[in-house]
Structures are given as structure tokens and as C-alpha cells.
Inverse folding.
């Protein structure tokens, strides 16, 4: 056993700093908690690193989560056999069970000679003394993650409460429960799991007998755990507390935001609550402050779309719009555009909600709808600051749209986002917002639409079979209103169709990371004239084609053709109408 303090071990490993230790010691003096738990609750270290260091220090194994007994009977059998009250074990934050072997696997008949002890502090003298007085066989102490232990303790508490006929929750104790150590540790573990998995959002959803935690990873939700419903009020109160929301209000939707620190990383947290039949559904968005923006090449912007994009952002004035649904990467594209034009000779001001990335040399303004500081109001103030380039987080209403157009007509270059299904649909959307077609034609310089597709995992993706290839080529041939639209130079390279398989590296999904697909159109020549006379969508597309315009679906199929993504992923995100008529059976012979 390593006799050094765990703080010193972690400091030597470079896992924490001296300031972290000082802060944790101060927290320990106030709360009496273990130093390792203090470091976790302050967000100084990831639990995985802490457990690894404690395992080496104490010569204890870290329990595999699958070895924790899954049934209430297994958790209550050993305490009953040893005459140990469940309430006492819960107060000691410990669970015990008989095991058939030293690995910790539960003994279904509860007659094994090994007793497994998992606790927040497995070396607690009072805990050891009482258990050893009642059990003379082998006791194996193990380390366990807070998330796994808290789930077991919740089940133990449920069994104890049912036995005693007690109520599991008390609305008057919401704030007190939110400050309890197991609740703090559980919520911290949620954030740690989400950041380790690269999740963008955490969904915490209550149901009649349980609540579920799901993570959105690469745009797809996956369930990571379920917990007893009795724990939900404390967990939701903790989340609302750290995000600055009203804990007592559970009848109305709320929004909260806060800057927090987890596992040594600073994170902007945005929380939304929505009252439902079984309680408030919570969605937490994580914005990492140290996250680096991908390059335009890394995003997937290439070919004619890249040429058009570079051209439109170099215009001296006008409006450039990036369209797409929430979470499609619009803000990232605009930030990269600002970096390209940020030459130090022009004044750049943004108004955003929220400010997602800090940019050197750019004045960034936070819109605050709750105090009446809207995009339109902020934009008027920005125009009095003598800007050259303006970025508006989103054009949401006619007033903002009209001010943006007027700013472009008076010599400013304006970047913004809009929610439409395609780039060219932005013209109709601006008209719906009350902007005249001739003003749209005069001010608009370029339109970009984008979506995010999952990238195939390079470790396990395999070549597509003949059936897959035939289906993919049929999709390529049918793209466009009048048949294929792909210029010959885009198809000169040999096709490399691939399909996902799944492996531990990609969490068995077949995909790791995401790539954007784009459609980009410069507003000039025939397209400008078509916009001015409010031509229908078919004419707008025909005019855009003359400038090398490709649709989102066409760009996505080109990326699938080179093995970046799969045809099934393209269809999942983009298939509509005729595009969905052709299906792909992955792994076809």
C-alpha cells in the first residue's frame, strides 16, 4: 500500500494542480468529506483517474459496474444474514453482498465465503469494525465509481423505505437534498460521462417508476442509465440549482445557464426544463470553452461549395446566410468565416445568444431576451459602433431581417443564420419576414445550407457488398430533378463505398465524429435576377446550378462515395420523397 497522500500522488502524476489541492483541502475542512471526493465535487479531476490512483495507493480493485448486484434481494440478503440495518448501511454509504468468487460476482444463494464491501470510504473504521464483528469469513473491499454506488444506495434506500413505510421524497427538502453528497456526486458523474463520450447534450427524463439518462453523441441519442424514480427530485433540483433556476417552480418551463467546472475543464451549461406527466424533463447542453473549432476542411467544406463560400465572405458588403436546423454546425461555420476575414484592419462585432466561442480581436455581445435586449435592439446599437463586419446569431423576426438588409445596403458585411431546409429556401423565408424581393436581390451575397452526418469509424468500417453498391449507384443516378447533376470531374476517382460495422473504439455504433455536408450559392448573374423577380424554387435552383451548385443530398452522396460516411447515414439525415424510395441493406451480399 502506498502510504503517500492521494493528493500528492495525483499532483506527481500531473492530474491536478497545487491550487486544486488547496481548494479541495478548504472544502474538506468545511464538509469533512474525503479529499478525493472533494477534488471530484470541485471538478478538478475525472473520477476514472481518481479511482486508478486510489487503486494503486490502497491496493484495492476497482469494481466492474457489471459486478454490482442488479436485484434488490442480493443487496438486502447479506445485511439480513449479518443483522445489519439497511438504514445504517445507507448512512455509511456502503453496500455489501455475498459473492461466489473473489471477482465480486453475486452468489445467488447468498452462502458464499466472500463478502464484498463497496463504500464511499471502504476503510471507514466504524464500518469495518461492525461488519467484522458479524462476519468471520473473507471480506473484500473494492473501490467503485460514485455513479454505480449511488444507484445501489438508491435501491437500498428504496427497500428500507418500503419496509418502514416511509415517503421517499419531501418537496420541502428539495434544496437540502440537492446539497447532499450522493446527489452532487451523481450529477458530477453525469457530466463526466458526457464529456468523456463527447456528448453535446444530456437528457434527464422522468417516468412513472424510473428516470432515464440519455446522451446525444454525434447527433444521435443513446440511453446510458436508468435510476429509481425516488431519486429524481433530488437530481433535478441539483441540476436546477447549479444552473441558476428556481428549484421550487416545477409547473412552468424554465431556462438556465451557468459556467461550471468538471474534471478540470471549464464548461458553459445551458439547461431547459419542461414539465411533463411524471415530472420535469431536463435537457442540458454542454459547450466546452477549450474546444477547438474544426477547420473548414475538417468540417467537410470542399469543391465548388468551398470556392463559393470563400468568394461570398470576401465581399466588401452584403448579407451572407448559413441555414439549417439547430445543432447543424451553423455557428461553427460562421466563426470560421469570421476568422478568415479578421485581418485586424476591420472592426468586427457579433451579437449572439449565447456567445459560444471567445474570438480574439472581435467584440462579442450577448443578447438577453429576458431583459428586452433582443437581436434587433442590439443590432441598432452595434451600427452606432462603426463596424465593418457584423455577425448576428440568428435572424428570428422581420425587424432583425430588415435591419440586417439595411446594414448591408449601407456598406456593412453581415453574417447570420436562418432556419430553413435548404440554402435557396432562405429567399422565400426573408420574403415571409417582410423583406421585399428587390431588397433581397440587392443585399444578398451568398447562401449556405449544411447538415451534420456521422463519419464512419476508420477502425471497423468495411467495403460495401454488391447489393449496397448497386443501391448506392441507383441513388447517384437519380439525384436531381432531371437525372444526375454531378459534373464528370467529381466522379473521376474510383468509388469507395463503405458500411458501418461497430467496434469498442466507436462504442459499437460504426461511427466516430461528424462531417458536414453543404450547399452554397453565390447570389449573382442569373440567380440575382431570379431572386429580384421572386422566381419559383425550381428556377432559383436552375440558375444556381450554373454556378456549380450542388444540393445537400448530392454533396452527401459524394462524401459517401469516398467512404467518409455511409449511404444509410445519408438517408437517415437527408432522405425525403424520391430520395427515400431507394433503400440500402447494409452488409448486402
Amino acid at each position: 500500500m502506498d502510504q503517500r497522500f492521494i493528493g500528492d500522488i495525483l499532483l506527481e502524476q500531473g492530474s491536478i494542480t497545487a491550487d486544486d489541492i488547496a481548494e479541495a483541502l478548504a472544502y474538506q475542512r468545511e464538509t469533512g468529506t474525503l479529499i478525493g471526493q472533494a477534488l471530484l465535487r470541485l471538478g478538478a479531476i475525472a473520477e476514472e483517474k481518481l479511482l486508478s490512483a486510489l487503486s494503486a495507493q490502497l491496493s484495492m480493485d476497482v469494481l466492474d459496474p457489471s459486478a454490482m448486484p442488479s436485484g434488490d434481494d442480493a443487496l438486502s440478503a447479506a445485511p439480513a444474514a449479518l443483522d445489519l440495518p439497511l438504514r445504517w448501511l445507507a448512512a455509511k454509504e456502503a453496500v455489501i453482498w455475498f459473492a461466489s468468487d473473489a471477482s465480486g460476482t453475486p452468489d445467488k444463494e447468498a452462502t458464499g465465503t466472500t463478502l464484498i464491501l463497496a463504500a464511499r470510504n471502504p476503510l471507514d473504521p466504524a464500518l469495518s469494525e461492525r461488519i467484522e464483528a458479524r462476519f468471520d469469513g473473507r471480506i473484500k473491499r473494492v473501490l467503485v465509481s460514485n455513479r454505480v454506488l449511488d444507484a445501489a444506495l438508491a435501491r437500498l434506500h428504496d427497500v428500507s423505505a418500503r419496509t418502514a413505510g416511509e415517503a421517499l421524497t419531501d418537496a420541502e427538502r428539495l434544496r437540502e437534498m440537492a446539497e447532499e453528497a450522493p446527489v452532487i456526486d451523481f450529477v458530477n458523474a453525469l457530466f463526466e460521462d458526457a464529456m468523456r463520450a463527447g456528448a453535446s447534450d444530456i437528457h434527464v427524463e422522468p417516468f412513472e417508476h424510473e428516470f432515464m439518462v440519455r446522451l446525444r453523441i454525434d447527433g444521435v441519442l443513446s440511453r446510458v442509465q436508468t435510476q429509481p424514480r425516488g431519486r429524481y427530485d433530488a437530481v433535478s433540483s441539483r441540476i436546477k440549482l447549479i444552473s441558476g433556476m428556481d428549484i421550487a417552480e416545477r409547473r412552468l418551463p424554465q431556462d438556465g445557464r451557468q459556467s461550471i467546472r468538471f474534471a478540470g475543464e471549464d464548461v458553459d451549461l445551458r439547461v431547459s426544463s419542461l414539465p411533463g406527466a411524471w415530472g420535469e424533463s431536463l435537457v442540458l447542453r454542454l459547450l466546452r470553452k477549450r474546444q477547438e473549432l474544426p477547420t473548414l476542411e475538417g468540417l467537410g467544406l470542399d469543391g465548388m461549395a468551398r470556392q463559393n463560400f470563400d468568394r461570398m465572405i470576401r465581399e466588401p458588403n452584403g448579407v451572407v446566410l448559413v441555414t439549417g436546423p439547430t445543432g447543424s454546425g451553423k455557428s461553427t461555420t460562421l466563426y470560421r468565416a469570421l476568422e478568415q476575414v479578421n485581418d485586424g484592419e476591420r472592426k468586427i462585432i457579433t451579437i449572439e445568444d449565447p456567445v459560444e466561442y471567445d474570438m480574439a480581436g472581435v467584440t462579442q455581445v450577448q443578447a438577453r431576451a429576458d431583459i428586452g435586449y433582443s437581436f434587433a435592439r442590439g443590432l441598432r446599437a452595434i451600427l452606432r459602433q462603426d463596424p465593418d463586419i457584423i455577425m448576428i446569431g440568428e435572424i428570428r423576426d422581420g425587424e432583425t431581417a430588415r435591419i440586417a438588409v439595411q446594414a448591408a445596403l449601407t456598406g456593412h458585411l453581415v453574417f447570420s443564420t436562418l432556419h430553413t431546409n435548404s440554402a435557396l429556401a432562405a429567399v422565400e423565408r426573408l420574403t415571409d419576414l417582410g423583406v421585399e424581393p428587390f431588397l433581397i436581390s440587392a443585399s444578398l451575397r451568398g447562401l449556405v445550407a449544411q447538415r451534420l452526418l456521422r463519419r464512419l469509424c476508420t477502425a471497423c468500417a468495411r467495403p460495401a457488398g454488391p447489393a449496397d453498391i448497386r443501391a448506392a449507384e441507383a441513388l447517384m443516378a437519380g439525384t436531381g430533378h432531371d437525372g444526375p447533376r454531378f459534373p464528370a470531374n467529381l466522379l473521376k476517382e474510383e468509388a469507395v463505398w463503405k458500411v458501418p460495422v461497430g467496434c469498442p473504439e466507436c462504442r459499437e455504433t460504426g461511427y466516430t465524429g461528424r462531417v458536414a455536408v453543404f450547399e452554397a450559392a453565390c447570389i449573382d448573374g442569373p440567380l440575382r435576377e431570379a431572386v429580384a423577380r421572386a422566381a419559383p424554387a425550381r428556377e432559383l435552383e436552375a440558375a444556381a446550378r450554373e454556378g456549380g451548385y450542388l444540393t445537400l443530398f448530392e454533396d452527401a452522396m459524394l462524401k459517401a462515395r469516398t467512404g467518409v460516411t455511409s449511404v444509410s447515414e445519408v438517408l437517415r439525415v437527408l432522405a425525403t420523397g424520391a430520395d427515400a424510395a431507394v433503400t440500402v441493406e447494409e452488409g448486402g451480399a
User: Anything to note?
Assistant: Residues 107-111, 165-172, 577-589 have pLDDT under 50 and may be disordered. The first strand starts at residue 94 and ends at 99. The chain is about 40% helix and 20% strand. Residues 205 and 281 are 5 Å apart (CA to CA).
